[in-house]
Amino acid sequence: MFLGAALGAASVFIHASVPPFGLILSITATFTGIWSIGRMWGRRSLKVVASFIWTVVVLRASFPGASDEYLIAANSVGISLINMGFIVLLIAILLPN
């Protein structure tokens, strides 16, 4: 669970830095991290749990905070992180361990 949260937090903070390289780094790190979880422990269920936690962290970051700030803005980079992130998570889960 910690790895999914760490990947999600890193994706949130890195995706908007130096567009589009931050987004590419976030998506690549997400794929590699989720895939390696299954590779290290050999269970697809752990990849599903980590992906769910990543999803929770990223979606929570896209809602307004206490002072109405958004960590993931509703621009092309932010929307791409959410959309491409979900696709990459599905691919990483479906790949064999």
Q: Characteristics of this structure?
A:
73% helix; mainly alpha; 97 residues; globular
Describe this structure in words.
This protein is mainly alpha-helical and 97 residues long. It has one domain. It has helices at residues 2-14, 21-41, 44-61, 76-94. Helix 1 (2-14) packs parallel to helix 3. The two termini are 18 Å apart. The model has no long low-confidence stretch (mean pLDDT 93).
Q: Short summary of the structure?
A:
This protein is mostly helical and 97 residues long.
Number of strands: 0
On the 0 to 100 scale, the average pLDDT is 93
Computed over alpha carbons, the radius of gyration is: 13 Å
The share of residues in extended strands comes to under 5%
The string of secondary-structure elements, in order, is HHHH
Number of helices: 4
SS-derived structural category: mainly alpha
What ranges have pLDDT less than 50 throughout 5 or more consecutive residues?
none
Overall structural domain count: 1
The largest β sheet comes out as: none
Q: How far apart are the first and last residues' alpha carbons, in Å?
A: 18 Å
> How does the overall form come out from the CA principal axes?
globular
**What percent of residues adopt helix (DSSP H or I)?**
over 70%
Reconstruct the topology from this structure.
Blueprint: H1 2-14, H2 21-41, H3 44-61, H4 76-94
Helix pairs in contact: 1-2, 1-3, 2-3, 2-4, 3-4
